[in-house]
């Protein structure tokens, strides 16, 4: 009998493909090409990667074809507009960030959602748009398009669009301006409705734990400094996103050493403020791995 293998559905190629693979590699899983382009094997664990179009990932995972999947929140929401997604989402992954925005031609006199009532709006996200329209108590004609949504107004197919935006350049080039934030999105790890079979439970838990570690350590820093004991509270408050720092005595009784893990970026401005509050010998070190 062949050994059971855990299956993780990932985007084959596209905006999430590379970062998904980085997450997998960062978790110590060594991916090699399998029998075909659709399947990668993890050579050091009983895991296969199903490489598919991102649109297929929610269905694959929901049908238990894959135990886990990495997909944009936008795609998940569009697929399951009425489901409680918190039951499906294992964790947010911090990459693939983008926003779904309502945009109108530059000359359009936009005064709020009412301005698009009764208009034609082109989108690849009809379900999400429908929900937004209903939340705003308006109706409009939804023109569903697979891609190239941004050219719809110019081609007189629609009066407005609802599309994904990350930098806004595409909108600008097409003479459009964003007017409403419809949905914020990032890549999420999703799980199948059925628990993994018992043989795979420990692998499943390991993958989830390691993905959590990789996600949390991305951008995280280890910060060390010396600080005057009587400014300790002020200094700790300045350290960004640190849970509970370690405080150690120094030979000089008026001083302590602070060690802290920051789960946010540490900017020069923060270091300036720490310095001004009396901190000295400040070191900011990258964290390679972290197991929360
Ligand atoms: P597939 O061939 O797998 O169906 P696709 O063309 O539908 O790919 P991509 O353009 O590769 O999808 O985008 C995948 C996901 O990346 C999006 O669903 C979204 O979650 C995320 N994303 C991040 N930034 C952007 C952006 N600027 N535009 C579009 N998607 C973005
Ligand atoms: Mg797609």
UniProtKB/TrEMBL annotation:
<feature type="domain" description="ATP phosphoribosyltransferase catalytic">
    <location>
        <begin position="53"/>
        <end position="203"/>
    </location>
</feature>
<dbReference type="GO" id="GO:0003879">
    <property type="term" value="F:ATP phosphoribosyltransferase activity"/>
</dbReference>
<dbReference type="GO" id="GO:0005524">
    <property type="term" value="F:ATP binding"/>
</dbReference>
<dbReference type="Pfam" id="PF01634">
    <property type="entry name" value="HisG"/>
</dbReference>
<dbReference type="InterPro" id="IPR013820">
    <property type="entry name" value="ATP_PRibTrfase_cat"/>
</dbReference>
<keyword id="KW-0547">Nucleotide-binding</keyword>
<keyword id="KW-0328">Glycosyltransferase</keyword>
<feature type="domain" description="Histidine biosynthesis HisG C-terminal">
    <location>
        <begin position="220"/>
        <end position="289"/>
    </location>
</feature>
<dbReference type="InterPro" id="IPR013115">
    <property type="entry name" value="HisG_C"/>
</dbReference>
<comment type="similarity">
    <text>Belongs to the ATP phosphoribosyltransferase family. Long subfamily.</text>
</comment>
<dbReference type="GO" id="GO:0000287">
    <property type="term" value="F:magnesium ion binding"/>
</dbReference>
<keyword id="KW-0808">Transferase</keyword>
<dbReference type="GO" id="GO:0000105">
    <property type="term" value="P:L-histidine biosynthetic process"/>
</dbReference>
<dbReference type="InterPro" id="IPR001348">
    <property type="entry name" value="ATP_PRibTrfase_HisG"/>
</dbReference>
<keyword id="KW-0479">Metal-binding</keyword>
<comment type="function">
    <text>Catalyzes the condensation of ATP and 5-phosphoribose 1-diphosphate to form N'-(5'-phosphoribosyl)-ATP (PR-ATP). Has a crucial role in the pathway because the rate of histidine biosynthesis seems to be controlled primarily by regulation of HisG enzymatic activity.</text>
</comment>
<keyword id="KW-0460">Magnesium</keyword>
<keyword id="KW-0028">Amino-acid biosynthesis</keyword>
<keyword id="KW-0963">Cytoplasm</keyword>
<dbReference type="InterPro" id="IPR015867">
    <property type="entry name" value="N-reg_PII/ATP_PRibTrfase_C"/>
</dbReference>
<dbReference type="GO" id="GO:0005737">
    <property type="term" value="C:cytoplasm"/>
</dbReference>
<keyword id="KW-0067">ATP-binding</keyword>
<protein>
    <recommendedName>
        <fullName>ATP phosphoribosyltransferase</fullName>
        <ecNumber>2.4.2.17</ecNumber>
    </recommendedName>
</protein>
<dbReference type="Pfam" id="PF08029">
    <property type="entry name" value="HisG_C"/>
</dbReference>
<dbReference type="InterPro" id="IPR020621">
    <property type="entry name" value="ATP-PRT_HisG_long"/>
</dbReference>
<comment type="pathway">
    <text>Amino-acid biosynthesis; L-histidine biosynthesis; L-histidine from 5-phospho-alpha-D-ribose 1-diphosphate: step 1/9.</text>
</comment>
<keyword id="KW-0368">Histidine biosynthesis</keyword>
<dbReference type="InterPro" id="IPR011322">
    <property type="entry name" value="N-reg_PII-like_a/b"/>
</dbReference>
């Amino acid at each position: 009998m062949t050994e059971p293998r855990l299956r993780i559905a990932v985007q084959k190629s596209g905006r999430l493909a590379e970062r998904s693979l980085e997450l997998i590699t960062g978790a110590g899983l060594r991916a090699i090409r399998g029998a075909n382009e659709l399947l990668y094997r993890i050579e050091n664990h009983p895991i296969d990667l199903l490489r598919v179009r991102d649109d297929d990932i929610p269905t694959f995972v929901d049908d238990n074809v894959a135990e886990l999947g990495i997909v944009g929140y936008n795609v998940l929401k569009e697929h399951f507009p009425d489901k409680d997604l918190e039951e499906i989402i294992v964790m947010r992954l911090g990459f693939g960030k983008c926003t779904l925005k309502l945009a109108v031609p530059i000359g359009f006199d936009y005064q709020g959602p009412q301005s698009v009532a009764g208009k034609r709006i082109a989108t690849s996200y009809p379900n999400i748009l429908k929900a937004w329209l209903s939340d705003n108590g308006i109706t409009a004609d939804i023109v569903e398009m697979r891609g190239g949504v941004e050219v719809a107004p110019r081609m007189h197919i629609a009066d407005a669009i609802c599309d994904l935006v990350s930098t806004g350049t595409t909108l600008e080039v097409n003479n459009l301006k964003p007017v409403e934030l419809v949905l914020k999105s990032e890549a999420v790890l999703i799980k199948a409705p059925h628990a993994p079979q018992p043989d795979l439970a420990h692998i499943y838990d390991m993958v989830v734990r390691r993905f959590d570690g990789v996600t949390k350590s991305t951008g995280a820093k280890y910060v060390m400094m010396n600080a005057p004991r009587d400014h300790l509270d002020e200094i700790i408050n300045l350290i960004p996103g640190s849970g509970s720092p370690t405080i150690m005595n120094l030979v000089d009784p008026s001083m302590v050493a602070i060690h802290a893990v920051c789960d946010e970026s540490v900017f020069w401005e923060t270091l300036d403020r720490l310095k001004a509050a009396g901190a000295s010998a400040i070191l900011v070190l990258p964290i390679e791995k972290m197991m929360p």
